[in-house]
Amino acid sequence: MRKRLLLACAFAATFAAQAQKLTATEKKIVATVQRNMPQSEKLLVQVVNINSGTLNLKGVREVGDIFRKEFDAIGFKTSWVDMPAEVQRAGHLVAQRKGKKGKKLFLIGHLDTVFELDMPFSPYTQLNDSTATGQGVNDMKGGDVVMLAALQALQQNGLLDNTTITAYFTGDEERKGTGDAARADFIAKAKESDVALAFESAAGLHSVATARRGSSGWQLKTYGQAAHSSGIFKPNVGYGAVFEAARILDEFREKLSQEQYLTFNPGLIVGGSEVKYDAAKAHGEAVGKTNIISPEVDVAGDLRFLTEQQKEDARTKMRDIVAHSLPNTRAEITFTDGLPGMPPTPGNQKLATLADQVSRDLGFGPVTAGDPGSRGAGDVSIVAQYLDCLDGLGSSGKGAHAPGETMNTKEFPLLVQRAALMIYRLTR
């Protein structure tokens, strides 16, 4: 008992010493966040319980309307950016205020999730005293609420006056609409800012992202000579489309798989006597028999990278592998751009240093930049070439993009406090 009491006293003394590093105003911000937490948690439950899969345009708009009312209430001017009908996406929510104090901030969230209407629905559920589950609770409705709750605490203390902040919530981060219109306004408003803070899910209380990998797609087609299987490998017949596809994929693995931050995944393969592949629906059908050499194979995959140079170098190597076909076969590969990479920069690291200092001042401990290889692509990467960026400021948890996705509810209020003080210090 005496040992536990001494440890408790030591912890209290340490926290008190850390708290002395906060100004009186910052202590008020923290207290406001804590006081508002029941309201913030209620809002989180409300938005998680609305399906907003990217293709559920009504659901995305419904979540956007909820956040719009919250931003209207704290003095932001809100608007909805509609997409052209052919893009088939709900659009984006923008909340802005303009002033002359401190840095101009661009805060990034998204309203959609990967869970479409035809998938089993998982409502918000508190599993235990530190864990909740629900569709998008972590990626990224939890992060959206972290951002909003931080701004609410600042507004309630009169600390948003004369600041320039744009909060931008895209409606199709998980399945970005095609065409320039999908992100034209997003890029334009980012260019008006000095710093971008993105509230995608955090790797934990002690990690942020100064870099993220980009993503792109590729489609491989191989062709062979249809013939009876007894003739395979003979000079007049050749190896067929399946062996040619297997050769190429295995050479990709052998020659590119050890490069840091570079990954590629063949996510769908269809081959046979008759092949149908619909890229828009990510759906394939094939008909074939074991005694017929397949004349065609389609392979769809992704390619992830840290820099544009790494992406282009990988594509060059892949094209070269594809060009050296087996006898009586041929192959072709095409690439499609997706999200660019977000390389680490000194400016990004400076923001990570700010996150670290705020965390230490709050008594939460150090914050470091996480491994870029552990993160996929995100909207922040689209604007990383224009301004300093930091990501991973949202809620923490596990299992994003999968049934049973969770959020750490004990870290949730601490992440709001950290975000609020970061925004406060950047806008002074």
Q: What is the C-alpha radius of gyration, as a whole number of Å?
A: 25 Å
Q: What is the N-to-C order of secondary-structure elements (H for helix, E for strand)?
A: HHHEEEEEHEHEEEHEEEEHEHEHEEEH
CATH topology of the largest domain: the name is Aminopeptidase
- Classified in CATH, the superfamily of the largest domain is Zn peptidases
Q: Major sheet: order of its strands?
A: 1-2-6-3-7-16
Strand content: 15-25%
**CATH architecture descriptor name of the largest domain:** 3-Layer(aba) Sandwich
CATH class of the largest domain: Alpha Beta
Protein name: Peptidase M20
Keywords: Hydrolase, Metal-binding, Signal
Pfam families: M20_dimer (PF07687), Peptidase_M20 (PF01546)
InterPro entries: Bact_exopeptidase_dim_dom (IPR036264), Peptidase_M20 (IPR002933), Peptidase_M20_dimer (IPR011650), Peptidase_M20A (IPR050072)
